[in-house]
Amino acid sequence: MTIAAHVTTGKGFHQDFLLDQLIFLANLHPNDHIITFVSDTSWYSTELPENLTPVVIRPAIRNRLLLYYWYNYRLPTLLNRYNTDAFISEALTLSLKTTRAQFLYISNNDFTTSVVKHKSPFLKKHFPQFISLSRKIFFTEKYFQNLFTSTLEVDKKKSELIFHGLASEYKPLNFLQKMAAITRFSRDNEYFLVPVSPGTVAQLTIVLKAFSIFKKWQRSSMNLVLLLFKIPKQDLIPNFELYKFREEVITMPADDGEESMLAMGGAYSVIYLNASFFPEPFGLNALCAGVPIVTIDNEFARYAYGNAALYCSLNEESLAEQMQLLYKDENMKNKLISNAAAQTEKYDLEQSSRRLYECMEIKSAG
After folding, report:
1. Mapping DSSP to helix (H, G, I), strand (E, B) and coil, where does residue 295 land?
2. What is the DSSP letter of 274?
3. Residues of the chain with pLDDT under 50
4. Is 55 left (phi over 0), alpha (psi -120 to 50) or beta?
5. 122: phi then psi, degrees, rounded to nearest 5
6. 3-state DSSP call for residue 240?
7. Residue 76, Cα to own-chain centre: how many angstroms?
8. In the sheet where 33-38 sits, what is the strand order?
9. Residues 104-160: pLDDT tens digits?
10. Of 361, 342, 238, 245, nearest to 287 (Cα)?
């Protein structure tokens, strides 16, 4: 089988679910050919499977007009050239000028703002056609699937929940590893870890105010470690020199290797306040590492983290209360850690990849 996919990826702080699945399938089916259409190949590893071919999109897609042009005047030619059996789109768009099997892949909440809330006139006009053309619509989260099928006219038989994989390197640390992390990152004091990314940086003031309240209530030696993902340290916190507990706040840049994993695995808890639904895996990575999380209370988070997290409103008092509860109640903390294994079990790269393949194989053959 020949599979092509438009992969909207950046290989940065977020996890590229579809690309991970395609790489897995390329290794699993060496006689198949997988083509990924991407904006550039500068971040591609030289160790990609031989049967996975990255193709740079030309002209570069910078707006909806170019997206429409590429999908309807360049993509059909490419699909014919590679004689594809299936094409997967992460861009909420399909080609209106090909009869080859096409599939939509939805891994974030962009469709609600672009389609349901009519932020994109292009999608408002064409998306019903894309739904009709799509053989299957793949979802990586139950929340996205429920929202999609409840707000748009779509045959529920087309809706396929496949989940996604998780970064396999995140695993619980042993006692000595945790002590090493505490020494290395937090001056021998336990710490709350905060992933600071484009999706969470706006909530940083709330986190600092909540930490102040927590310190006044508990008077503990707990520190706050800010792990920066694509966020510069300079001017990160306005008037930080006036912050009372600035000596207990430690800032460090994230990397893609062992140091970030060690910092997360050694944390007492991870505070993850992402107000958007884009694929940042920090919450799930923390659960995989056996670290309880405190996160925003919304429907998406409840689906993703279940009973393996504590939930707060987006204000400092609510967050401080949950930080204190986690700090004082060791039994609750252990229960959350125990629940994490069951909650993350469904995020399995092999199972999700095989399900993706099966659906394309059945439908494209038909």
Report:
1. strand
2. -
3. 11-12
4. beta
5. -60, -50
6. helix
7. 30
8. 52-56, 33-38, 2-6, 86-89, 102-106, 136-139, 159-161
9. 999 887 776 677 665 677 777 888 899 999 999 999 999 999 988 888 888 888 999
10. 342
User: Looking at residue 279, what is its pLDDT?
Assistant: 60
Residues 169/188, Cβ–Cβ less than 8 Å: no
DSSP annotation of 172: -
Burial environment of residue 112 by CB neighbours within 10 A (0 to 12, 13 to 18, 19 or more): middle
Cis peptide before 59 (omega within 30 of 0): yes
Neighbours of 99 (CB within 10 A): 9
Q: CA-based angle 237:241:244, to the nearest 5?
A: 100
- Residue 274: CA atoms inside 13 Å, Cβ hemisphere, count? 24
pLDDT value of residue 119: 64
Task: Tell me the C-alpha distance between 11 and 342, whole Å.
Answer: 28
Separation between Cα atoms, residue 150 and residue 163, nearest integer Å: 19
Angle at alpha carbon of residue 117, lines to 163 and 144, rounded to 5°: 10
Work out the end-to-end distance of the chain between its first and last CA atoms, rounded to an integer number of angstroms.
Answer: 13
- What does the pLDDT read at residue 168? 80
**φ and ψ at residue 240, rounded to 5 degrees:** -60, -30
Give the closest residue to 263 by CA, choosing from 334, 192, 331, 198: 192
On whether the CB atoms of residues 106 and 148 are closer than 8 A, the answer is yes
